[in-house]
Amino acid sequence: MDHAFEFLVRQGDNVLVLGHRLSEWCGQGPVLEEDIALANIALDMIGQTQLWLSYAAEVEGANRTADDLAYLRDAWDFRNVLLVEQPNRDFAVTIMRQFLFDAYHVPYLHALESSKDQRVAEIASKCRKEAIYHLERSSSVIVALGDGTEESHKRMQAALERLWPYTGELFLSDETDDAVAESGLAPVLNDVKARWLQTVQSSLKDAYLQMPDNDFAQIGGKSGIRHSEHLGHMLSTMQVLQRSYPGAQW
Amino acid sequence: MYAQMIKSTGQGVKSDEQMTEQERAFQARIDAGEKIEPKDWMPDGYRNNLIRQIGQHAHSEIVGQLPEANWITRAPTLERKANLIAKVQDEAGHGLYLYCAAETLGISRDELVDMLHSGAMKYSSIFNYPTLTWADMGAVGWLVDGAAIMNQVPLQRTSYGPYARAMVRICKEESFHQRQGFHIMMAMCNGNQAQKRMAQDALNRFWFPALMMFGPSDKDSVHSAQSMAWKIKMNTNDELRQKFVDETVPQAHYLGLTIPDEQLVLNEDTGNHDFTEPDWSEFHSILKGDGPCNVERLEVRAKAWEEGAWVRDGMMAHAEKRASRKAAAG
Lengths: 250, 330
Ligand SMILES: [Fe+2]
Ligand SMILES: [Fe+2]
Hints:
CATH architecture of chain A: Up-down Bundle
CATH topology of chain A: Ferritin
Number of strands of chain A: 0
Radius of gyration of chain A: 18 Å
Largest sheet of chain A: none
Number of helices of chain A: 11
CATH class of chain A: Mainly Alpha
Oligomer: heterodimer
Strand order of the largest sheet of chain B: 1-2
Largest sheet of chain B: 2 strands, antiparallel
Radius of gyration of chain B: 21 Å
Order of helices and strands of chain A: HHHHHHHHHHH
Structural class of chain B: mainly alpha
Structural class of chain A: mainly alpha
Bound molecules: fe (ii) ion
CATH superfamily of chain A: Ferritin, core subunit, four-helix bundle
């Protein structure tokens, strides 16, 4: 297995899948300002996808493009964590999922800025600027809605509990994580976890939300071994034109 | 247009003698090309007319997100996906500027939204047509945003300051949308047989609905006469429709597409194209609520609003709590 390719695809797939999920909200947000903000984050994430997957395709050297990787792989070749493929459900789940990911994304990208690979460092630096804004936004919404009304608090707590089992996968190192940490391409995940936890604890406290004391983790996304049922449906929508009209230029 | 069949006072334009002194001074400012600002005195008719027009325009931007959002999750490349998200996001932004412009006239966004959901206010007929293939993303950008530009460019000179300024920002983005739509069409027309078929089919379905956007002929309408005297409407519907046809026909030829109108011909005497009028009974039935997507479009918007109530309430409650905590902390 080419660990560098695997690593790059993981980065790209996380933002592709999450960006796609956010884009499902377009035109249907709870309030115009949130609609615009979600679209903005989706847009950033699709842009980040292009950077990561283009580089992945180059590293692979098999004459594939970023679009080929996005549109012509099946679910088992996707390498995103399970967290990002979870369905939007209500706004509480959407924004909590976003917060839990952003809180990881910012320190992770920060660490990647010191990657031995210059190109990875550059992409990470560009993405981190956007991720910082995403985190500012998602954490402030978490705080507002956790505090807000009885109903908004209840929904946010429920969303947190529902998504919590999907956070562990972000930090459980596997062979690829170990290999890219070893080679200086990417950080040791445990170091990122400490910063993630700090952010999560402090925002949840401000939001009057209770952090679940359960460290059970659902895994299988970033290895591609066992995605959720949801990913297949997402891809069948996302890839429909490329699959139906092979080779067409759009 | 994004605002169709707007009712004015219904009384026709007042003559100099019929106007009060205040009204005469107001009309003189408009005639001199001055901008009316929110704090200025204005006739009730002017205010109400503008609320209807800007409100309908804002609703059109918001409901207008839906036919295109319908394809965001199926956009065929990462670049097309990003462009389409950006476009739909722009439309939400247009809605926001326009609601803000309407608010300067003394009506809240919530009131306007309620009127949309209750059917008391309309949005453009065009958004009640379905988007069925990817080529529709091309046709909508090219024709619908194209038609919107025809109407909105002159509105940059409209007499109401906040509306004119909103139009300046909006027009820049609309012309970008139009180009983006045209590029999608171009890719389809240079593509395989299926893509060419999609492109022609999209033009077939959107041509007459696009012509309807300008509204029925209003050369004899008292409402339009008053709106034009107040410079909140700058051209007649027929003028704009003609301009749209004249500009669009060569673009369709360039794409290798056929406009679905056998009567369409360049009139050597006028230099304009003669064309078939759209089916106005279809237009009126859409305004009544019987278009192919009226029910669904409103349902989606109303559902988003209802399901978002807890979010809006939560944010409001948090803001209030925070303010009172701050006050308590002294
Ligand atoms: Fe617009
Ligand atoms: Fe537009």
